[in-house]
């Protein structure tokens, strides 16, 4: 069983562990895709930094159902601070999407880790976009602006799979493309860490 510390503030590495929480009036902060809230026996608050859910459709539907029943309260916003009493959590201040500050009472705070990728200033560069990702070709992973490349979760192309292995592939092709863009007359070579003395020396694994 999970145990709360004396402050009432818990970081859970896995959403499944949250099911061990006893029946408190719980404040739940869940960015991104986590959706384990519906199993709580008491009245939880689901606070997230973005409106959309990326969980399983059935889990998202359950969250909406509980909200419609008045058994769960959803807030879109960002936690601004904790309210403490006697060294324990007694509430959380949430800045909502409308800019208003919401004071939410809480006996326990569960903070889940999640990802909320944002382009920031890059979104103003004039790149061709696909919703909130950048369109690229699959030969060089070049954007609509020559010499600007995008790899990883930030990009979009037909058949895109958000996997680390895919990111390695994209990085390799983008690196070769960037080198050719900078040095178009320079011949490119493929070198392997298993056979290239130069590569092994750079990595510090070559023979003395």
Global shape = elongated
CATH superfamily of the largest domain: FAD/NAD(P)-binding domain
CATH architecture term of the largest domain: 3-Layer(bba) Sandwich
Helix tally equals 3
Would you identify the regions where 5 or more consecutive residues have pLDDT less than 50?
A: 1-15, 26-44
| Structural class designation | alpha/beta
Task: Report the β-strand fraction as a percent range.
Answer: 15-25%
- The CATH C-level name of the largest domain is Alpha Beta
Extended strand count: 10
Number of domains in the coordinates? 2
Largest sheet: 7 strands, mixed
Order of helices and strands: EEEHEEEEEEEHH
Average pLDDT number: 75
Q: What can you see in these coordinates?
A:
With 208 residues, this protein is of the alpha/beta class. The chain has 2 domains: 9-112, 3-Layer(bba) Sandwich (FAD/NAD(P)-binding domain), CATH 3.50.50; 120-182, FAD/NAD(P)-binding domain (3-Layer(bba) Sandwich), CATH 3.50.50. It contains 3 helices and 10 strands. It has a 7-stranded mixed sheet with strand order 1-7-2-3-4-5-6, with no helix packed on it. The radius of gyration is 24 Å and the shape is elongated. The relative contact order is 0.12. Mean pLDDT is 75; it is low at 1-15 and 26-44.
Notable features of this structure?
208 residues, alpha/beta, FAD/NAD(P)-binding domain, three-stranded mixed beta sheet, 10 strands, elongated
Can you lay out the helices and strands and say which pair or pack?
Blueprint: E1 9-12, E2 26-29, E3 45-48, H1 57-68, E4 73-85, E5 88-96, E6 101-105, E7 108-112, E8 129-130, E9 133-135, E10 155-156, H2 164-182, H3 197-203
Parallel strand pairs: 1-7, 2-3, 2-7, 3-4, 9-10
Antiparallel strand pairs: 4-5, 5-6, 8-9
